[in-house]
Hints:
seven-stranded mixed β-sheet, Isoleucyl-tRNA Synthetase, domain 2, RNA-binding, four-stranded parallel β-sheet
Amino acid sequence: MTEKYNPKLLEKNIQDHWESNKVYESKIDQREKFYCLSMFPYPSGKLHMGHVRNYTIGDVISRYKRMQNYNVFQPMGWDAFGLPAENAAIQNKVNPKDWTNQNIKNMKNQLKSLGLSYDWSKELRTCDPSYYKWEQLIFKKFHDAGLVYRKKSLVNWDPVDKTVLANEQVIDGKGWRSGAQVELKEIDQWFIKITNYAEELLESLESLDWPENVKLMQKNWIGKSFGAEIIYQLEESDKKLKTFSTRPDTIFGVSFLALSPNHPLSIEIAKNNAKVMDFLNLCKESKAAEADMATAEKLGIDTGIRVIHPITEERLPVWIGNFVLLEYGTGVVMGVPGHDSRDYEFATKYNLDIKQVIQLEDETELPILEKGRLVNSDDFNGMSSEEASSKIIKHLTKVGKGSELTQFRLRDWGVSRQRYWGCPIPVIYKNGEPEMVQEKDLPVVLPELSEGSSPKPLSQIPDFIELDKDVLRESDTFDTFMDSSWYHARFTSSENDKEIFDNNTKYWLPVDLYIGGIEHAILHLLYSRFFHKALRDIGMVDGDEPFKRLLTQGMVLKDGAKMSKSKGNTVDPQAYIDKYGADTVRLYMMFTSPPEQSLEWSESSVEGASRFLKKVWALVSGRKFESFDINNLEFDKNDIELRRKTHATLKKVQNDYEIRFAFNTAIAAIMELLNFIPDDYKDDAASDSNKFCLNEAIIFILKMLSPIAPHICEHLWREYQYDNENIEIWWPEYNEDLLDAEEFELIVQVNGKVRGKILLNKDLTEKEIEEIASQIENVKTHIGDSQIKKSIYVKDKLLNFVI
RNA sequence: GGGGAUGUGGUGGAACUGGUAGACACGCUUGGCUUAGAACCAAGUGCCGCAAGGCGUGGGGGUUCGACUCCCUCCAUCCCUACCA
């Protein structure tokens, strides 16, 4: 009788062993390094399935790389500032700091129970002054490098609670707590000039080993577009309006201009025009989120002001449109209803002229969005869009009414947040003039809240704000994306309280593999890339990019929907870790779907994962390695087949782990190998050659499975006593010579339909194969009396007779 | 509205380079073991059909000897949309 598989006890023992021997603490050595980073979590209190999936992927790869003799660094920490702590603090009357720290404690225990091979000695939390001190320093350095400025921008304002709301706190235009109609309000904020790096952020995407869809999303987000700046003269005024258009070829189709409601001219007009004022106020009843702006009904008002068309000198009306963003381009849109669907919708609604100036080969209804040939465009008629664009730009440049212009969609990064639980922005105001806090005075520490008091914006904490007569402290905190934009670098030097980065940083950076949710494809990853480049330019880090390779995992769903508290469909991973053990949960997560796809949670599949581990246990437990001299063994057909399967599986698993990240198919292959072992090989009476082949299969299975199910494999490895090494010390090698079989199965098709399968020797010629295949009964039947027009042969695979 | 993905049996998924659709699992059915159940073991399991055979990868169309894979088009779901992280 063998011992029963008891994951709970076994896993605890193995984990204690890892911890007391500091197995996963990394330091610089001679081997090739591998920095494997999973996106650190927001400490919400409990691990959710998405975390488990993310961190298992990272751990599998880390363990695999470790077995391949890389010097692996896999740290973990906490993205500890943010809105949820404030919400929880208000709801439960606890201090955000205590709440956060308690959550971290819980989640750390959970992570440990999953058997993740983290180097906990490098742990960091962004809410700790020892971390954000350096963030404040970076901000100061960015400022000194000319990357920081102040400007007004829009926020969601709750007029009842008198607070700024995040987009997610605005529900159907109302504040989530007060229920009051939210207003757009302009306030002064700090910005960082990420747009200085727009070109480089775009270009160096090419050098990254990232999924193409993520690169494409970033490219589109940065949104480089070529076009023209076109200047319109206001009638009876010396004022001008600048517009940007990517389609200067449609300039003869302009029938109106539309200003953003926040454009200075709109505001000026409103001062003397009550109707316009009303309209601007109406526009304020909106939400700052782009998705809401873009889907809102298009509204506009005629300002009564007219401009002169730069070429035709026609008078065109100037409207204000709620769909025009001040932040993009110049905040003025030139309306070409014939060739832009949004302008078309607007013009139809307000009875504005719709002119066709582009024609396609075939008749098409307006609006025509494609490029074509110009019509109704004076001297430019008949030209292609491309030719006309460049000629029109040339003409406008000559007459001083425009010029060629390249525009980015990317906007500068507003980093000010009017919140308590964040990193204080290290600025003081002397007589209203901002000044960076000196390096020696950092960190500016977040003030403690008095017992039981709710978090409040720092502006309401006089002890913090008021420094001296006419000397005030900045009361905003940083966007939490600031915290997460450089943590990957700080992990390497987190033990150093004298310097922000050190020699360890030089050794470990860049991150070789970064793993996280697809939802971070744009913002977090773009900000981190920007930070890295800006830090490089102030001499703090080396290299152009922080993350060499990226793996984006899909969501964990239940019943086709994202798990969320509001839907009440969350599944607590801890319950499953307790019931089945970490190895089963890890195996389930890796087996159920490939990492990049979303994963549908299914309880019964967990059962299946557990069953497989029990089978592995049943095969190995109680068995000891027996040594044989391979030269004395004679392998029969079954032996050779098992060895082929064993070595082929290793080859496949290596490819799946390393190249494809297809852990699901790697596991399926290991399952196949296990199923392939003949029962009599497991018998005590089996021949020496049988036993040798079984030994080999067992060794390979434990090694291949150990990155995914490290506890059970380590335990069985010790018990099996092949060597006295830790299972993670080495990785087996497959023998290419064993992979080739003498025979193959030929698929015989007639007109592309399978009509026969036949086992053939590989040294037959194509002619011989055709002859044999054409004699198969079912093939003969389907060919009948017909003439074979041609046959297509795919070597060692398929033969198709076309009749 | 814009950008990016996904869609294959009852379920999760496989098919890596245009070449056997459904690997590997889950579930289900039948049988074995058992007083019974659980667990375990064995066999079967895309759909229609007695069978021969036909049909089948979200819908429609196309390219090809051959399409889950390439092209066009439509539909559904998910992610992001700059203050959730």
